[in-house]
């Protein structure tokens, strides 16, 4: 009996075999119409024969024919979850509520909702804005920040909200063109990503932040090293407003990448300055520098070659001591970046191994607070602007990020939603259902550049309007005036902290003042271990981190 039950898994396979032979016999004896079920059942029977003979999938060997249902259901599981099961507040990684808000603002339709919040206002992690009894009406919501230090000859007036780095190649031609055209219409900047400037960036005509990563695409020699001559030509383009050195990104910090030769089109090769038919490698680390002082010298070189345009770097914080080493190098050399972009570990447009996406890098709020306070501690915060990125799509997200130390914000996925992204999470498959993250010419035709560029500009404009409203509610005349005390953060179900307690601004110059503050002994311990000459630790710790004892 047990043996009979164990073979029930072949029931479908045996059934289609019987139907095939019965239909063939019936077609020969009675009616040729029976050939139709014979062909269908025969195809399934041959599929079953293949299943029991193949060695790749155990489930198909044990459940021929019917086992394919498992793979079929798995293939559209994300869609089933997103459209049927997912709640408005489930974050995977963006909630339906957040996506809906972007769609509404991009389309210019009603973005209000009735019947109160769906947030758990008494749950751990909830944050809220403290409003004023004397709110202010802000008429002009074209909020801007000047980026460019004392060594910069061509400072840039940037919007408080810009498009974060996404390369042509990862995104389709029509997606890049829609984003950049929208940036031009809305008066904000578009980061090229490490894939350099494509013809579609130039066609859009929007302001560009040119990203230079470890592959030096667009300004590289044949061996992959940095080419000063090619960079000088590239940076002379008036469309380029700032230069950003990418040290790491939130999606996969410390991880390089490779674009297989089979995926390199003539347009990608043209933008990146790479040959066809050869794998395109993005190393994990830069070859131009390997020390903190080397990084500062590279910044100085790029600023000179670009005729004084703002130059900075982007990173996801890992070893905090390493960032402090960079700050020490700034002090030792006198070379300051014009800006630093802090990318949180929650960033995610780059396809990444699950371990990197989930478990590598510091989240944005903590990273931003650390960078901001380190620069304050070194006494150079006023000379360097800070940008921040990491799931920033609402006016509240922007306001909170500005309060914790940022001067402006970037977003990638928010603007992807504005051009129609449905969060299918198929970006790495070349089968994006809406034509954004694909190089398939047929799929990307779905993007109407004229319509989507208007949505990009409208999303930005309506988000800035909402930012003005929330700043006015706090009694401010400009969102750049947000401070931590304007926000409250719930730590436990029955406890909350003022923003000044949860994310305090530490004293100006405390790291270099000479006189130490006992409560900040951990900061001094880490600062002492930082070295402008090297990213390597002075010693390998074996055991708990030894904090300096408070006096």
UniProtKB/TrEMBL annotation:
Keywords: Membrane, Transmembrane, Transmembrane helix. Residues 161-476 form the Glutamate synthase domain. One of its GO terms (biological process) is glutamate biosynthetic process. GO terms for molecular function: glutamate synthase activity. The chain crosses the membrane at residues 12-29, 35-52. Belongs to the glutamate synthase family. This is Glutamate synthase domain-containing protein 2. The lineage of its organism: Bacteria, Pseudomonadati, Pseudomonadota, Alphaproteobacteria, Hyphomicrobiales.
């Amino acid at each position: 009996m047990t043996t009979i039950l164990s073979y029930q898994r072949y029931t479908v396979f045996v059934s289609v075999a019987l139907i095939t032979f019965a239909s063939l016999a019936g077609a020969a004896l009675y009616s040729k119409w029976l050939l139709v079920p014979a062909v269908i059942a025969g195809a399934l029977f041959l599929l079953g024969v293949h299943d029991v003979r193949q060695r790749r999938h155990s489930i198909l060997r044990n459940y021929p024919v019917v086992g394919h249902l498992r793979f079929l259901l798995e293939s559209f599981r994300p869609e089933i979850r997103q459209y049927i099961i997912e709640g408005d507040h489930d974050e995977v990684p963006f909630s339906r509520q957040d996506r809906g808000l972007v769609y509404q603002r991009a389309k210019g339709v009603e973005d209000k909702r009735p019947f109160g919040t769906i947030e758990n206002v008494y749950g751990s992690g909830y944050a809220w804005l403290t409003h004023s009894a004397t709110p202010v009406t802000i008429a002009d919501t074209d909020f801007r920040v000047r980026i460019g230090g004392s060594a910069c000859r061509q400072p840039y007036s940037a919007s408080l909200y810009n498009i974060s780095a996404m390369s042509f190649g990862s995104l389709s031609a029509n997606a890049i063109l829609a984003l950049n055209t929208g940036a031009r219409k809305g008066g904000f900047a578009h980061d090229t990503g490490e894939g350099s400037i494509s013809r579609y960036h130039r066609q859009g005509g929007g302001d560009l932040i040119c990203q230079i990563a470890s592959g030096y695409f667009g300004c590289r020699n044949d061996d992959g090293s940095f080419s000063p001559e090619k960079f000088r030509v590239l940076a002379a383009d008036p469309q380029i407003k700032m230069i950003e050195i990418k040290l790491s990104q939130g999606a996969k910090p410390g991880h390089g990448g490779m674009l297989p030769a089979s995926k390199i089109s003539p347009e990608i090769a043209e933008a990146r300055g790479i040959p066809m038919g050869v794998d395109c490698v993005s190393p994990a680390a830069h070859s131009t520098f390997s020390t903190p002082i080397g990084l500062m010298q590279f910044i100085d070189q790029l600023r000179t070659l670009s005729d004084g345009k703002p130059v900075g770097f982007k990173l996801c914080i890992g070893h905090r001591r390493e960032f402090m080493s960079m700050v020490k190098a700034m002090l030792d050399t006198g070379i300051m970046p014009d800006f630093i972009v802090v990318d949180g570990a929650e960033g995610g447009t780059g396809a990444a191994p699950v371990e990197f996406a989930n478990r590598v890098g510091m989240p944005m709020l903590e990273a931003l607070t650390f960078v901001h306070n380190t620069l304050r501690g070194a006494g150079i915060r006023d000379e360097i602007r800070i940008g921040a990125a990491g799931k920033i799509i609402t006016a509240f997200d922007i306001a909170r990020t500005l309060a914790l130390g940022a001067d402006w914000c970037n977003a990638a996925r928010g603007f992807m939603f504005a051009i129609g992204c449905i969060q299918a999470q198929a970006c790495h498959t070349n089968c994006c259902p809406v034509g954004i993250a694909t190089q398939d010419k047929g799929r990307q035709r779905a993007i109407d550049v004229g319509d989507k560029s208007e949505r990009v500009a409208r999303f930005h404009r309506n988000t800035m309007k909402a930012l003005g409203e929330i700043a006015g509610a706090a009694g401010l005349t400009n969102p750049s005036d947000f401070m931590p005390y304007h926000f409250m953060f719930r730590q436990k179900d029955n406890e909350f902290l003022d923003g000044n307690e949860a994310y305090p601004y530490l004293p100006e110059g405390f790291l270099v003042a000479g006189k130490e503050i006992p409560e900040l002994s951990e900061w001094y311990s880490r600062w002492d271990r930082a070295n402008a000459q090297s990213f390597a630790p002075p010693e390998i710790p074996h055991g708990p981190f030894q904090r300096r004892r408070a006096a």
